[in-house]
Amino acid sequence: METIKPIKLGSYKEDTSEPLTSAEMGKLWATYMGNSMSKCILSYYLQHVEDKDIKTLLENALKLSLKFMNTIEGIFEKENFPIPKGFGEEDVNLGAPRLFQDRFYVHYLKYVAKAGMSIYNVAIPLMIRRDVKEFFRNCMDATMDLMAQINEILMNKGYIIKPPIIPVPDKVEFVHQDFLNGFLGHVRSLHALEIAHLYDNIENNTASKALIMSFAQVVKDEKIRKLFEWGRDLTSTSIEHYMQKLHDENLPTPSFLDDLVTTSTFSPFSDKIMLFHKMDMFSMKIRAFGNSTAVNGRHDIGLMYSKSLLKISQFVEAAAKIFIEKGWMEQPPHAVDRNKLAAK
């Protein structure tokens, strides 16, 4: 494939001595926090994995998280930016009994790799400073390579089915007045983009449900447990709705992963890291719903996503309130509050 032609403007020189922009600060901070969490989670997974291919996959993922954190620390130190506390040894018990079967680890990695790619994809166009821009491009490239390994293992071991197969069109066609119908009149069959996002949302949510189910099983704080149980139930309901849309078209769907969670009630993780994880990943669902809605054309599917969005937003807000009440939420980089400035 030919690369694009270079453009030599010469009027602006990217300089790594330039101060970080708000976009660069924000995305670096969020990436550090996410990988700080992943370091703990993956370190625990590696204590129990038996399948050698899945173990290599987990090792690769952990290596990336540590590399990303190290690079960000270098940038922050150069800018005298305080290194976020994130998560550490106090947030994981490596000696805890097995909570998941090996197969779950592969689905989990795909779940979080998608979230990482979403962050990097948004970050890249906003980055100006050369070192930060190159960092996020490297993050995206490395995560794409990891995703290729994940999908290869999922398919070779028979852990997932491919997205549904539909017929190749016979000719170019144009839509009619009933294209947007979803409740009344003639309701057309799903188009390829609607199917793709329904499949993607099911795939994400089956991993999310198994994870939050396991967290509800081991969490110590009763208030957080009830929140997790609520999140588990609303995730289960969403999955069933998405599946029904595909089943109505006689199309296959990914299956639940609940059976990959063991019966252990001994927590390998702190309540803090589990609450952060689900608050963070439920926030990612909001972006997924936006992407799904953007390519949707049927009123019934649009309404379904709107209801899911409302419930997910309520969960994230409830989780954030608990996180703040516990004194666990670190302050992201922020603008100056000039209303609080006063002459001395």
From TrEMBL:
InterPro entries: DUF3231 (IPR021617), Ferritin-like (IPR012347). This is DUF3231 family protein. It comes from Bacillus salipaludis. The lineage of its organism: Bacteria, Bacillati, Bacillota, Bacilli, Bacillales.
